[in-house]
Amino acid sequence: MARMRDQPWNLLTARMADLRALRGAVAVLAWDHETYLPPKGGAARAEQLATLQGLQHEKLTAPDLGDAIAAAEEAERAAPDATRAALLRDHGWKVVDADDGTRVHASRFLGALPDRTFRSLEEVIAEVDESAVLVKRAPGGETASQTTLQ
């Protein structure tokens, strides 16, 4: 069974496949019209092309397509199902602000996560908030970061 957040992508994928097929059919009919169409076939061919181009327009401007695009964008903003290892691999290299004057690699925070699958960005944030991430200043003013779990 497809997950809920896969549904917008499934609609987008199916719609784009339909649009590619329609565009291909229009291209073949247009090419045939320009090259081999008998002189008296123009009216019928124009009707065929108009019908296919109308279908293309309907599929491209349908409200459900706009809704699916918005839902897919929202699903992308939310973190996809990911394990701690996947989060570290994909995002551990990023630098984040630990406090007003300290920046650390995201791996400091992500490494403190439990080894499980996270289904949303909110879950990851909640786990990071529950972790104790200590940032200490060394005597010379440099930052020494240490990550521990509560």
The radius of gyration is 27 Å
Helix content: 55-70%
Query: Main beta sheet, described?
Result: 2 strands, antiparallel
Give the N-to-C terminal Cα separation: 37 Å
Domain tally: 2
Low-confidence stretches: 130-150
Compute the number of strand runs: 6
- What's the average pLDDT? 74
Count helical runs. 6
Report the portion of residues in β strands.
Answer: 15-25%
Biggest sheet: strand arrangement: 1-4
- Reading the helices and strands in chain order gives HHHEHEEHEHEE
The coarse overall form would be: rod-shaped
Q: Given the helix and strand composition, which structural class is it?
A: alpha+beta
Description:
The structure is a single chain. With 150 residues, the chain is α+β, with helices and mostly antiparallel strands. β2 and β3 form a beta hairpin. The longest helix is centred in the N-terminal third of the chain and has 30 residues. The radius of gyration is 27 Å and the shape is rod-shaped. The chain starts with 5 loop residues before the first helix and ends with a strand.
SSE topology:
Layout (H helix, E strand, L loop, with lengths): L5 H30 L6 H20 L1 H15 L4 E2 H8 L3 E5 L2 E4 H5 L6 E2 L2 H10 L1 E6 L5 E6 L2
Antiparallel strand pairs: 1-4, 2-3, 5-6
Helix pairs in contact: 1-2, 1-3
What labels describe this entry?
150 residues; two-stranded antiparallel sheet; disordered C terminus; 17% strand; 6 helices; two-stranded antiparallel ribbon
Structure summary:
With 150 residues, the chain is of the alpha+beta class. It contains 6 helices and 6 strands. The protein folds into 2 domains: 72 residues; 67 residues, no CATH class.
